[in-house]
Design goal:
The protein is of the alpha+beta class and about 425 residues long. The chain contains 13 helices and 16 strands.
Length: about 425
């Protein structure tokens, strides 16, 4: 690491500044390095110097100072001294070897007891955990049914007067019941009510109706897999990758980013020449911005693994993919044909709000509010940067269009000259 890389580890600018000053201090003694660690003693406020060491494998640090910031200024200063001029090579002292040995033992995987008794015990524990969650979710569904009955009794007109604590109470109850899908659905209703507007009552009623349907279907003895997924039951990506994969030529055309305040998510709709539309999802926390799972706007060849459910399937990226220039993607001949193609998807998952939709040879109306097909039928289009770019790319000529349809308007995502390779916009 150079000095800049070392300082980038600092928890804040104050620690970085203190470490820079401390690196040039004369209060260091017994410094040294080996292939695996740095160490040294640094004079502090007490009679005994602080013991400082750094694991060169992952830059983990240990210091006997009382600071609650990690890494502390002493650990950063020691690394700065080594970055400026390598510390003398020596045998690590006993206290450094003990710390490294403890880290090695902690990182070593625990030996698995594969005896029949242990295997059976783990299976029973897993079944017990699953049964406990089933019971918790069942109780949450019953609570949601009661809440919906109260909302219906009070009427939609009373929702804007409800305070944040009222909404939070039912969301927290669903989270405690391990039914995060229900909690998210309630939050969506709350956001619609808070946003207001001319259609808030219509949209809130629509979401509440979907929530009522989900609660009714969830109370059946054996809920449908789609219903379970909407409740919050999930399959791990590792399990999905261990299952069968789909090898195909994939065209990532549409994407949407969202941020719930804790996690940022990017969803990418990908068209496969043999498998149709699929959805790839990636999350990132801590303020990071997730990159799309696949290279966007090109054609990639590789294997994607489908999650259980109905089309368009969510997928996990499997074997490494090879990107190459985009090739033409067929689009339905009219909006009527395109919308009719959503019937199976809506039947399979009526709670899905966004659908990939495409149409060949469309034109933008003079008021820039509609995309009209060759037969004169149109759909509303969202006026945004993507639409501006589409007009710039196509020069007002007819073009093939693909976007995300929410039942009200199309969010444009890719365009192509009729029969040509698509170009991502937005």
């Amino acid at each position: 690491m150079d000095a800049q890389a070392v300082l980038e580890q600092a928890p804040d600018s104050r620690v970085a500044s203190s470490a820079t000053r401390l690196a040039g201090s004369s209060g260091w003694q017994g410094t040294g390095r080996s292939d695996s660690a740095l160490w040294g003693l640094c004079a502090g406020s007490g009679k005994d110097p602080y013991r400082v060491c750094v694991d060169l494998g992952d830059r983990a640090t240990k210091c006997s100072c009382p600071s609650r910031k990690f890494p502390c200024k002493h650990a950063l200063a020691l690394q700065l001294r080594d970055a400026r001029e390598p510390l003398p090579v020596a045998e690590p002292p006993e206290w450094v070897r003990e710390w490294l040995d403890r880290r090695t033992r902690a990182a070593a995987p625990a030996r698995s007891d594969d005896s029949p008794e242990a295997v059976e015990r783990r299976a029973r524990a897993k079944e017990k955990t699953a049964a406990a969650r089933e019971n918790a979710v069942r109780a949450g569904v019953a609570g949601m049914a009661d809440w919906l009955a109260d909302v219906a009794g009070g009427g939609l007109a009373g929702l804007p007067a409800r305070d944040a604590a009222w909404w939070h109470a039912i969301q927290a109850r669903m989270v405690d019941a391990q039914a995060k899908g229900l909690a998210s659905a309630v939050d969506e209703v709350r956001a619609i009510v808070a946003a207001g507007g001319a259609r808030w009552a219509h949209d809130a009623a629509d979401r509440l109706g979907g929530l009522h349907l989900l609660a009714r279907l969830s109370s059946s003895p054996s809920p449908d897999p789609v219903v379970r997924r909407r409740l919050g039951f999930s399959v791990t990506e590792e399990e999905v990758r261990g299952g069968p994969g789909w090898s195909d030529q994939w065209a990532p055309l549409l994407k949407l980013e969202s941020d719930d305040g804790l996690v940022r998510t990017v969803r990418q709709w990908v068209w496969g020449r043999s498998h149709g539309w699929v959805v790839a999802v990636r999350h990132a926390g801590g303020g990071a911005r997730p990159a799309p799972p696949l290279a966007h706007g090109v054609q990639v060849q590789g294997v994607l693994h489908p999650y259980p459910g109905v089309p368009p399937h969510r997928v996990a990226v499997g074997e490494p993919v090879v990107a190459r220039p985009a090739e033409p993607v067929p689009a339905p001949e009219s909006w009527r044909v395109a919308l009719a193609g959503l019937e199976e998807a809506l039947k399979g998952d009526p709670w899905q709000r966004l659908h990939p939709l495409g149409c060949a040879s469309v034109r933008v109306t003079e008021d820039v509010r509609w995309l009209v097909d060759a037969g004169g039928h149109g759909v509303p289009v969202r006026g945004d940067v993507a639409l501006d770019q589409a007009l710039a790319v196509t020069g007002g000529e007819a073009f093939d269009a693909w976007g995300l349809w929410d039942g009200r308007e199309l969010r444009l995502g890719a365009v192509a000259m009729p029969g040509g390779a698509p170009e991502v916009v937005g």
